[in-house]
Automatic annotation (TrEMBL), chain A:
<protein>
    <submittedName>
        <fullName>MoaD/ThiS family protein</fullName>
    </submittedName>
</protein>
<dbReference type="InterPro" id="IPR012675">
    <property type="entry name" value="Beta-grasp_dom_sf"/>
</dbReference>
<dbReference type="InterPro" id="IPR003749">
    <property type="entry name" value="ThiS/MoaD-like"/>
</dbReference>
<dbReference type="Pfam" id="PF02597">
    <property type="entry name" value="ThiS"/>
</dbReference>
<dbReference type="InterPro" id="IPR016155">
    <property type="entry name" value="Mopterin_synth/thiamin_S_b"/>
</dbReference>
UniProtKB/TrEMBL annotation, chain B:
<dbReference type="GO" id="GO:0005524">
    <property type="term" value="F:ATP binding"/>
</dbReference>
<dbReference type="GO" id="GO:0005829">
    <property type="term" value="C:cytosol"/>
</dbReference>
<feature type="domain" description="Rhodanese">
    <location>
        <begin position="279"/>
        <end position="365"/>
    </location>
</feature>
<dbReference type="GO" id="GO:0061605">
    <property type="term" value="F:molybdopterin-synthase adenylyltransferase activity"/>
</dbReference>
<dbReference type="InterPro" id="IPR001763">
    <property type="entry name" value="Rhodanese-like_dom"/>
</dbReference>
<keyword id="KW-0808">Transferase</keyword>
<keyword id="KW-0067">ATP-binding</keyword>
<keyword id="KW-0547">Nucleotide-binding</keyword>
<dbReference type="InterPro" id="IPR035985">
    <property type="entry name" value="Ubiquitin-activating_enz"/>
</dbReference>
């Protein structure tokens, strides 16, 4: 399965936008676990996932070709 | 109303006298008169928002001027709200401007915002942003949220129902405030001056659209903007369920804002405590600023290990028992202290100098 990853802010510093080929990952929760293992700094940051440009509030199923955006909070002014 | 002043927007299709009258009777509170607040206020005042409130307890500093465009070099040291109000009145003497040289806290915000129709959040820290969010949600006041980080910005509108009856707030995005040091601020991470200029101007445009009911305001959508690529990315929002907002004023006032780390991982200390710990045997003070950062401190007393080399340092064994991390503003030092604690656990005492060298430079040895 192929997932497009788009990252922002501090997260983009260690996880560039990329197409990931992942096998055995069926849900956003599994994707989170996978990304936090591949990119350990992610586990130390609060972030929100958006699936195909919609923020998700609970675990949802993924399908090939989905785009997952990973957004950290910004506080600066 | 001097219609000549507003002529160019009065003749706009879909705007006209009616929209201008709505602006004239609107009350908008801008919290944070900095990089975002300055450009937002310029356009809100110029457009003829009838009543503008300005909240900020800070004074103008030299390092503000590259992005806080209402201020000049001769304003350094003056209260931002007073200088800003002076400039805005010169720009448009027909509107009312009220200044609040106050730091927003849970116990003063409800009184401040209750008479306003819209709040614009242009502050610079998470603690204040969560207080503003919770207060606006409690009183059901529309909130225009604007924030920047490095070369990127975020914009959203909260507390307004969309066509489906959905109403969101910041906690639907990020239910729990980040810990100190988890996300950098402008003082630590830097910001290109024009970025808050753009995001602040967009925030002002959203305020004007909400008041005049033109266009499609950013309700329940989060706009992300990247100034390096000029790309915008828009996310649709929905209500989350993993948080609870206070339903009464009493509950609101009781909420905890202290989001600093658990005390057993590291301690935040001031310069006096630093001096006391310094006297103890087996103490090591580590300056995690990069090589180019000033003021330079005595390298015999403050071991220089820049954040960029912290991992190498953590790979070695440290013999000292008390380990104090310092940096420019006390934020990177928290990250360093956390990482250090992860390796050594409770076998060592770890500290971070709160406020950093910028705050305590007269207490440190050059």
């Amino acid at each position: 399965m192929e997932i497009e990853i788009i990252s922002f802010g501090k997260i983009a510093e260690f996880m560039a936008n990329q197409r990931l080929t992942v096998d055995g990952i069926k849900t956003t929760a599994q994707l989170k676990d996978f990304l936090e293992q591949e990119f350990p700094p992610l586990a130390g940051i609060k972030y929100k996932l958006a699936l195909n440009k919609t923020i998700i509030q609970e675990t949802v199923e993924l399908k090939s070709g989905d785009t997952v955006a990973i957004m950290p909070p910004f506080s600066g002014g | 109303m001097a219609s000549e002043r507003y002529h160019r927007q009065l003749i706009l299709k879909g705007f006209g006298e009616e929209a201008q009258l709505k602006l004239a009777s609107a009350k908008v509170l801008v919290i944070g008169v900095g990089g975002l607040g300055c450009p937002a206020l310029q356009y809100l005042a110029a457009a003829g928002i009838g009543h503008l409130g300005l909240v900020d307890d800070d004074t103008v500093a030299l390092s503000n001027l590259h992005r806080q465009v209402l201020y000049t070099t001769t304003d350094i040291g003056k209260l931002k709200v007073e200088v800003a109000a002076e400039r805005l009145v010169e720009m448009n003497p027909e509107i009312e401007i009220i200044t609040y040289p106050t730091y927003i806290q849970r116990n003063n915000i409800l009184n401040l915002i209750q008479d306003y129709h819209i709040v614009l959040d242009g502050t610079d820290n998470f603690e204040t942003r969560y207080i503003i969010n919770d207060a606006c949600a409690l009183l059901n006041i529309p909130l225009v949220f604007a924030a920047v980080d490095g070369y990127e910005g975020q914009l959203a509108i909260f507390n307004i129902k969309d066509d489906n009856g959905i109403c969101t707030n910041y906690r639907d995005l990020f239910p729990i405030p980040p810990k100190k040091g988890e996300i950098p601020n402008c003082a630590e991470n830097g910001v290109l001056g024009v970025l808050p200029g753009i995001i602040g101007s967009l925030a002002a445009a959203e305020v004007i659209k909400l008041i005049t009911e033109i266009g499609k305001p950013l309700i329940n959508r989060l706009l992300h903007y990247n100034i390096l690529t000029l790309q915008q990315y828009e996310l649709n929002m929905s209500s989350g369920s993993d948080y609870t907002l206070p339903h009464t004023v009493a509950d609101f006032l009781k909420m905890e804002d202290n989001n600093s780390c658990e005390i057993d991982s590291y301690l935040e200390i001031d310069a006096t405590q630093l001096k006391q710990i310094q006297q103890k045997p087996s103490t090591l003070i580590i300056d995690v600023r990069e090589e180019f950062e000033v003021p330079l401190l005595n390298p015999d007393l403050y071991k220089k290990i820049p954040m960029s080399k912290l991992d190498e340092f953590l790979a070695q064994e440290v013999t000292a028992y008390h380990v104090i991390f310092i940096c420019q503003h006390g934020i990177r030092s928290i990250t360093a202290a956390e990482n250090f604690h992860k390796k050594y656990g409770t076998s060592k005492k770890v500290y971070s100098l709160k406020g950093g060298i910028a705050k305590w430079r007269n207490h440190l040895t050059i």
